[in-house]
Amino acid sequence: MSEFIRTNGLKKIYHVGDQRVEALKGVDLEIAQGDFVVFMGHSGSGKTTLVSTIGGLTRPTEGTVLIEGKNIWKLNDSQLSNFRNRKIGFMFQSFSLLPTLNVLNNVVMPAIFNSNSRKKDTDALKSKAISLLTDLDMKSKVNSFPSELSGGEQRRVAIARALINDPEIILADEPTGELDIRTEKEVIEICCQINNVYKKTLIVVSHSLTWLEKAKTTIVMKDGFIYKDLADPVQAIMNGVCK
Amino acid sequence: MELIVLAIKDIFRRKGKSLYLLVAIVIPVAILSTILLTFDNADSSLSNLASKFGFTLIVQPKNVRVDRINQIGVNTEEYIPEGVVREIEKRVREIILNPKDRIITVVRFYKDEKVLAGKYEVSSVVAGVDFKSELEAKPSWTLTDGRWPTSDREAVLGGTYASSRKISLNDTVTINGSEFKVAGILQNYNSSEDYMVFAPFAEVQKLFDKTGFVSVINIQNVSLDKDKKLLQAAVEDINRNIPNITALSPQQFSTMKYTLLKKTLKFLLAIVVATVAVSIFSIFNIMTSVLYSRVKEIGLLKSVGASRSQLLTIFLSEYLTIGLIGGMIGYPLGLFMTYLLDSFLLKLGTGVRVNLLYVLVALLVGVFCSFAASSYPIYRLSRIKITESFRTQWEG
């Protein structure tokens, strides 16, 4: 697998009141195209900050994020928005659907911000959205509103929305948080399919050990650093590195 | 789905908050429309009145000021000696170009008096008129019922005066202890005459012990009608040479009558401007609170690729649409308020008419209020950091 995402000396410092919090302390990382990476670590270890920096959501204090060799933090607002729209599909733990739109419109929504998709036939976009929702067993809910859906169903809609613009990277921050075990397994299976069938590079942040069985790469973080020299990261996690 | 469609869908899904904003916009628009329409009605009433006068020149006592004319616009306190009439006619004759041109002079005597009309005594304006010369000057003056008086003890009532007091033909009205039989009911002209009691000129003078005095002298002349400069010359000549009187053209007279009203309306307009400013501030506060409750939504839209300009388009479209709807509702509400104001308070009698310019003004004010109040919070929020936005709570 070829190098697709690369971070160099990535630092992020937050200022909370008088306090200075170093969330990332110089992270160097490479992720290959088509990889399925799970970031693990205790709360405050910097994994969400790292992933949101890669996704163009949080500007780093120092360092670079290169995607296909291009430093995304050199892009202007419009170019960065375009990058997020076309290259990345996001899945969040909660608040990921617009309560004012129905399922179909929530899925189609990223396409309205895409200048290429906007030129396409609206019917074609809707067909694609329905096709994705059918794959995710959500066809019967296309006209429902988020408040009428269960947690698992909301995640599936978020997955369909993440795929609508056919991005190369899917970033998922705690996608199975607050879900019961059965639903968590369903969501993880879908994510595996996204990686295997749709050939997307999947980057997941999670505390759940269930992901470890499916991930191709596991990265453990602690105090703003990546544990690079862990012979067996799974064992390290089991031994309490991330607890 | 287009950006605008997304904005419109938001309005309908957030009915409560949209309605709240709508009301905040409708109120200043409706008040502004009411004032503008009433202002317009006063102007129309002014020109209607001027055209209905039928006189070329009006002469009244010098002391009559806007604040001393009564509520229906006539002077009932100051008088001119009757001898002045001949002097005025002489001066007009000297000024007009055609010596054969006829000069019709109509004098009136006005008095505010309690008149026993029907069962009750009511405060009324009694007009002493010479019916013959009035009809000569104003052939269009017609009765809806009855005939013109033929004796000294007969009167004619204004249409509104008679109908509001339920007085019919051959009923009696008592003026200052003297009874007058109602011989005719005058047609309504949407003027002060609709509210008057007309009785023979000399009788009214005698009743109030003012023989030899008049309230107003009206002159009608074709040459002066045709030539505004000549009319102005006559007005200036009379004012310069005859003491203690004021000569006016009907337009000037009507304008004077409405100066007070227009001043009041201008004052109200200033209040409306202040109200609109306060409203914008209130809408700003409402808008800021509504928008800050949507921070997470903004973060989500940005995360899926909405650029700052696209966010501005969505949110401005949403709030400008509400502003536009506010204007669309505010204007008819203003029309209704104008109707109520005119029917029960001002009684300008011009009716309520749709003014396309004011429709446009109402729509623009609605949109402007919305834009002025929403643009800054929207601009600020479009710059919010995505990760920061996710830390706030959803509000649907």
Provide structural commentary.
The complex is a heterodimer of chains A (243) and B (396). Chain A is an alpha/beta fold and 243 residues long. Chain A contains 8 helices and 10 strands. In chain A, the strands form 2 sheets. Chain A has a 6-stranded mixed β-sheet with strand order 6-7-8-3-9-10, sandwiched between helices. In chain A, helix 6 packs parallel to helix 7. Chain B is of the alpha+beta class. Chain B is 56% helix and 17% strand. Chain B contains 13 helices and 12 strands. In chain B, the strands form 2 sheets. Chain B has a 6-stranded mixed barrel. Chain B has a two-stranded antiparallel sheet with strand order 2-10. In chain B, a hairpin with a 2-residue loop joins strand 7 and strand 8. The longest helix of chain B has 43 residues, at 250-292.
Please outline what is shown here.
The complex is a heterodimer of chains A (about 240) and B (about 400). Chain A is an alpha/beta fold and about 240 residues long.
Note the topology.
The complex is a heterodimer of chains A (243) and B (396).
Chain A: E1 3-16, E2 19-32, E3 36-41, H1 47-54, E4 62-67, E5 70-71, H2 77-87, E6 88-91, H3 103-112, H4 115-119, H5 122-135, H6 151-163, E7 169-173, H7 181-196, E8 201-205, E9 217-222, E10 225-226, H8 233-238
Parallel strand pairs in A: 3-8, 3-9, 6-7, 7-8
Antiparallel strand pairs in A: 1-2, 1-4, 4-5, 9-10
Helix pairs in contact in A: 3-5, 3-6, 6-7
Chain B: H1 3-13, H2 15-53, E1 57-61, E2 80-81, H3 84-95, E3 104-117, E4 120-129, H4 131-137, E5 143-146, E6 154-157, H5 159-164, E7 172-175, E8 178-186, E9 196-200, H6 201-207, E10 213-214, E11 216-220, H7 222-226, H8 228-241, E12 245-248, H9 250-292, H10 295-303, H11 308-346, H12 356-382, H13 386-389
Parallel strand pairs in B: 4-9, 6-8
Antiparallel strand pairs in B: 1-11, 1-12, 2-10, 3-4, 3-7, 3-11, 5-8, 6-9, 7-8
Helix pairs in contact in B: 1-11, 2-9, 2-11, 2-12, 3-8, 9-12, 11-12
